[in-house]
Amino acid sequence: MSMQTRRVGESGLEVSRLGLGTMTWGADTPISEARQMLRGFVEAGGSLVDTAPAYGQGVAEKIIGKLIHTDLRRSDLVIATKGGFGMHQGRRRVDTSRRAMLDDLAVSLRRLHTDHVDLWQVHAWGEAPLEETLAAMDQAVSSGMTRYVGISNYIGWQTARAATWQQAVPGRARLVSGQVEYSLLARRAEIEVLPALRAHGMGLFPWSPLGRGVLTGKYRRGIPRGSRGASEHFSWFVEPYLEAKSRAIVDAVCRAAEGLDMSPEQVALLWLRDAPVVTAPLLGARTLEQLEPLLATEELELPEPIVAALDDVTGGQNHLRAR
């Protein structure tokens, strides 16, 4: 099977139009399951794997590093990781200084057992001067430690400021991508982030494309055992999307799925995959069983009337979408 590829914004970087997210690896997803997921993803034509030092406190990167030497070739993957955010003495810490960023990247490369990553992203907006953070990214590109650079969790003005800084002087490493939450339950990015990305020729990697799992429909009748919503360390992540407005949206997705003979998660993913500015949604499946129906969407598309109806029920027309 082959999966269509897309260029990341206006750059030369090409990735599969679905990405594999690894936030749960090393915590909820053991290496045995991660191995099956990664192999299944690559066999389906997937290439983009997104990780970070914060995922499993480094374990996610270690798993990828192991698997590209035992199960896969390095060239099979487009590896994206991040810097500037992690756990320190049990507390979350954002440090986007030059020293912290480059230290993070050096450690990531050791965990991944590779001499370079394909995309390195600032994980979050930090207190260090922006020009210092971006200079670290320039250094990473010029030294060959990464091929491309991007940003993650930047709001609209932050995205525009960072992209403009990099474009202002020839020789700086152009930002090629942004990564934010975006789904039928979280369309805020359409207001400022997506227009900023489009204006600067950048691609979008949406995280939580299935509304933190809620768009699968599994929470319609309560919180199932074994779900993230029932997890002590992930319940806070799901809770914001369990209110009445979200339930109405999930009901609409489920009705569309029944009419199209698809699953709710397939409908939600297809709406996002083919939305403007999107390069590749990042699939945060925890098991191969959850991943397989998402990989089976390659030959599927949503009819335009269904896209428009889902737009309407989740907040109105997407003004970036050509009608």
Describe the protein's architecture and organization.
The protein is of the alpha/beta class. The chain is 38% helix and 15% strand. The strands form three sheets. Strands 11-10-9-8-5-4-3-12 form an eight-stranded parallel β-sheet, with helices on one face. Strands 1-2 form a two-stranded antiparallel sheet. The chain is globular, with a radius of gyration of 19 Å. The two termini are 31 Å apart.
> Rounded to an integer, what's the Rg over CA atoms?
19 Å
What's the end-to-end separation, in Å?
A: 31 Å
Compressed to H and E, one letter per element, the order equals: EEEHEHEEEHEHEHEHEHHHEHH
Give the proportion of residues in helices: 25-40%
Which assembly state applies to the chains in this document? single chain
Averaging pLDDT over every residue, what do you get? 93
How many strand elements? 12
- What summary fits the major beta sheet? 8 strands, parallel
Structural class: alpha/beta
Protein name: Aldo/keto reductase
InterPro entries: AKR, AKR_Detox_Biosynth, Aldo/ket_reductase_CS, NAD(P)_OxRdtase_dom_sf, NADP_OxRdtase_dom
Pfam family, one: Aldo_ket_red
Domain NADP-dependent oxidoreductase: 17-313
Summary keywords:
single chain; 8-stranded parallel β-sheet; 323 residues; two-stranded antiparallel ribbon
